[in-house]
What does this fold into?
Amino acid sequence: MSHLLSPKMKEEVTYTELSFHKTDDVEKVLQMDLTEKPEQPAPRSLRSRVPLGQLPMCLLLLLLLSGLIVLGILFSQEQAERKSLHSRNTNLTQSLQRMTTELCRQLVAGNKESNCFPCQKRWQWFGASCYRKFEKWVTWSEGKKLCHSKNSTLVKIDSQEELNFISQYNHVWLGMSFNTSRRSWLWEDGSALRDGLIQNMESPSDYRTNYCASQTSYVSYKSCLESSYILCEMVAGPVRAESLY
It folds into this structure.
C-alpha cells in the first residue's frame, strides 16, 4: 500500500511513527522515576569506642589522674608556704643578730673584757671588722704576708666612717697599691678605690716604681719597698646571744 502513497504522505507517516516511539520512551523514563526506590537502612547509632569491659579501668585511671593533679596543687602550696616561712625566719634571725650585736657594743664600751666580744684578743672591733696593728717595720709585701698568716688582710677602706676610724693609726701599710697596667689604685681583692673617698691619691708620675698606700696623719703613698708598721683587718665573728650573760 505504501507504493500508493505520495511522497508527502510517506514523510508524514514516518514522522508520526517517530513521535510515537519517542512518546513511549518518555513514558518509560517517567515510570522509572516514579517508581519508589527501596528505603536505605537507617545509619547505625555510634557505638562506644571503649568496650564495656574496660570502662571500670578507664574510670580508675581518671580518678588516679585527678588525684595526681590535686597532690601537685597541694605540693605547690606547701612549697610556697615553706619558702615564705623560711624568709620570715631569715628576717627574724637577722633582726635578732643586729639587736644582739648592738647590745654587745654597748657592753664592750663599758667593759672591754665582755664575753660577747667578737674579735680575738688584742684586736679592736669596729663595724663588721676587727683590726690590729703589728709593730713590725716591714715592706708592703712582707706586711701583706704577715696579715695573711693571721687569717686577715691589710686594711681595705670602704667608707668615710672607716677612714675616720683608722686615722688613729700612724705609719701603717694599707691594702692598696697602684696598678701600672690599669693606671689606677686597687685594693688587694682587685677592686678599685671609690671616687672621692680618699683625697690626694692621684696617679704617680713615675711608673717605674711600685707605689703602695700608707697611713700617717693622712692616707698617702710611697714606694712599696720602703718600710712601715702593719694594720691588718679581718671579719668580726657573730655575736651569740648566750655570750651576753
